Amino acid sequence: MNRRSRVAPVSRRYVDRMAVKRTKSARAARKRKRRMDRVEHDLTPVQWSALQEAWGGCAYCGAADVPLQRDCVLAISRGGRYTLDNIAPACRSCNASKCNEEVTHWLRRTKRDERAFLVRHYEIGRAMTERFPQAPDDDHEGDEVADDVDA
Predict the structure, then answer these.
(1) Residue 65 counted as domain residue
(2) SS3 content of the chain, % helix, strand, coil (to 5)
(3) How would you classify the pairing of strands 68-72 and 87-91?
(4) pLDDT in tens, 136-151
C-alpha cells in the first residue's frame, strides 16, 4: 500500500474555501469588485476617448504625455459611478493621490486651482452632454400622470 492511498480524501468545500486569498490586497480587490457590481456604469469607450480628447491630458495636473486612467470625481465608495458626468481623465499619480477623497478637498489640500478645474469640468461635461445625448429611460415609460382626469 503506497502512502497516498492512506491519506483521507479532502472535501471539495474545504478546497474551495482554501483557494481564496486572504491577503489585505485580495480582500480589498474583492470588496471593490462587489461595490462595482452593485452600480450600473454607462460610460462607453467612445465617450471615454472623447473625454480624453476634450481634456487633452490629466484633468488635475495637465500631464499630456502619460497614460490616463478613469477617475471618478465622486468616488465609487461614496456613491459615484462610471458615467459621462462623473469621470475625469487622471494620470496615475493624481488618481492614486486623490484616492476616494472628495475632489474639492483634494484640490485644496494639494494646492491646485479648484475653481479652474470645476469650471473646466462643467464646460467639458456640458459639451459631452450635447455630443452624447442620453436616451430616455425606458424604466419610467407610462409613469406620466394625466393632468385632467374626468371621472
Answers:
(1) yes
(2) 45, 5, 45
(3) antiparallel
(4) 554 444 444 444 444 4
CA distance 68 to 71: 9
Conformational region of residue 80, where left means phi above 0, alpha means psi within -120 to 50, and beta covers everything else = beta
Give domain status of residue 15, yes or no. no
User: How many C-beta atoms surround the C-beta of residue 122 within 10 A?
Assistant: 11
Question: Quick one: cell of 105?
Answer: 478637498
Does residue 33 sit within a domain? Answer: no
State the residue for C-alpha cell 467612445: 46
Q: What is the pTM of this model?
A: 0.67
Grid cell locating 80: 459615484
Nearest to 50 by CA among 131, 135, 133: 131
Instruction: Note the pLDDT tens digit of each residue in 21-32.
Output: 788 988 888 887
Nearest of 52, 45, 44, 104 to residue 74 by alpha carbon: 104
9 sits in which H/E element: none
| Residue 108 near residue 100, CB atoms below 8 Å | no
Report yes or no on 36 lying in a domain.
Answer: no
Cα gap 3→56, rounded to integer Å? 66
Domain tally for the chain?
1
- 84: CATH: 1.10.30
